[in-house]
What does this fold into?
Amino acid sequence: MKKLLIPMLAVLCMAGLELYSQTGKEQDAAQNNIHLLLPQALYAVPGTELNVYFDNIVLVSDIKKVQFDVDCKYGRQDQTRWRFTPEAKDAGSFPLTIKVYDTASKLIAEAAATVYVSPKDSGKGKDISVMLLGASQTAASIYPQELYDLFKKDEGLKVKFAGTNSSSGYPVKDGIAAHEGRGGWGWAKYCTIFEDPKETRPIFKSSPFLVTKDGKVVLDFKNYCDRNNNGKAPDYITILLGINDVFSFDDAQFDQNLPAVFASADTLINEFRKVSPDTKIAIALVPPPAASQDAFGKNYKCGQTRWQYRKNQHRYNEKLIKKFGGREKENLYIIPLHVNIDCENNYPKEEEQINARNPKKILIASNGCHPTKEGYLQFADSFYSWFKYELNKK
It folds into this structure.
């Protein structure tokens, strides 16, 4: 891939976090409550749209109170996003910088990323296996199937999907993407749930990674690989977990409970790593929720607000980057899934009467954390672009 020089920025956000040098800018950013979450690497493939939705990368209660300025040779800046659909000739890499200003036009945050455009035929001639691990967003089976279909169109690339689940809990069939997605699950459940007597659905009764040995329930990823991947560890594992782990936290609970969440993450990843140090494990940053509180009212009554969960989701991603970012030498990677999802238009909406005295109906957001098919297809675009980047490596 061709190399382009990236200017050094004094306020470059290392690993996507707002890590300013100790200057007035850092103090100003804190005072303005700006948490800018632009990962250092973004991935694209010719013919596939890449987006950076501005509301997805900053933690602010009102996006209308900040302004964005994108500095990039490619793509275009719209009201709500930067977007770019590369062509074959764009293969290579280029810098992108985003600045955030307050209503007084004062610079309050700035970050840079490198956009990597991988050739469409990346991976040609290779034979790989992948395992997609996640919660309900994976269990919905839409992004796994789209990813499966995208790979099927790639000439000369063979991809096996390892898993015990497909089509929202149905047995795995030919032509359907297998995966390990279970609605309501988080890191801990994949380490602990075994023969749950309250669960009637076979796929949910036990973690696929647990077995009994000498009367004890233990993690055994080697056993999983023997049963589901011809005795070999997957070449790639993607993980989209966290939505259930942090969903219900308030601010204090987030700080108190996150160490336990990450302890389970370490337990699971260490088991994968013990079996296969060469498997590339990619942690997907959790996508933001639907853009409206209406969706949370519809789903959770007064049980959780969109703003609280949005804070949890954003802070969780910051912690994921801090924990797993910069560890490529250990075959650990970050997928910037959160930047590419349209939270305004690609989450479900339904008609509802305006109020008891007004019979007119309006569309309101109706699902807080689960996108429409179109949103899940944007998930697939993000995963696919990352895979292509990795497959393009020599």
In short: The chain has a mean pLDDT of 92.
